[in-house]
Amino acid sequence: MRRDIFQAIADPTRRAIIALIALQAMTPNAIAENFHTTRQAISKHLRILTECDLVKQEYQGREIYYTLEIEKMKEIDKWLEQYRKIWENRFNQLDQVLSTLKKQKK
Amino acid sequence: MRRDIFQAIADPTRRAIIALIALQAMTPNAIAENFHTTRQAISKHLRILTECDLVKQEYQGREIYYTLEIEKMKEIDKWLEQYRKIWENRFNQLDQVLSTLKKQKK
DNA sequence: AATTTGTGAAACCGAAAAGTTGCATATATA
DNA sequence: TATATATGCAACTTTTCGGTTTCACAAATT
User: Fold this and answer.
1) Cross-strand bridge partners of residue A68
2) Contact B22 A77 (CB under 8 A)
3) Which of residues 18-47 of A touch strand D (CB under 7 A)?
């Protein structure tokens, strides 16, 4: 099935996992301790995150450390860029209105 | 039902709708013309987008114009902020490595 | 060698999502 | 006033999602 980064971050548990491993690489068991679900459920979330390249696995013996692929997060930033342009534009327009008002005051 | 902006943008059709009305306010019928689904399906997407305050309705006679609430998009930007810090930090660290290498060259 | 531990995967389940069809309502238009 | 148009909403269906349970397997530990 086709995995998409926007679909991946839609789930609150997955966003929490991302926040966790952003600080340090963690094993599925260690991650699962932070939630009220089973390890298997977390494992499934990790699979989804892995499938869309948001996290990476690092094998160390029988343990698997999951790390955040911060580069992938930039995709969201890139998507947001078009809208950032809009709100910055509106801000500039407001700025212009304010400075015009200021001039009139003088 | 609880609506969440991350869940709202998870659907590709909804992201396309957002992109459309970011340019100009549009009626459901006009929006639906851009997709291969029924008007009712688009209407449902618009309801979801409205429920999480991503879009706003402007009544004009029997037509309803949907506009993007650009302010709401900032919430995603705000969430992304913590990760932006990380990738900018990494960039700075790389920068430091490079300048150290440069010094050593001298 | 036997047992424990860390992990993924498959089968199953209930809830939610996304879509369609059909209907109701309000506003234009003839 | 009768008709056409724009829209939302409810009922229903199919698909997807998030979770649990059960199992398999490999690596550590005893």
Assistant:
1) A55
2) no
3) 37-38, 40-41, 44-45
Global pTM? 0.88
Which CATH class name applies to B1-68? mainly alpha
Which residues of chain B have a CB within 8 Å of the CB of A77? 80, 84
Per-residue pLDDT of chain A (106 residues; tens, 9 = 90+): 558 999 999 999 999 999 999 999 999 999 999 999 999 999 999 999 999 999 999 999 999 999 999 999 999 999 999 999 999 988 777 777 777 777 676 5
User: Would you kindly state where each structural domain of chain A is located, as residue ranges?
Assistant: 1-68, 71-106
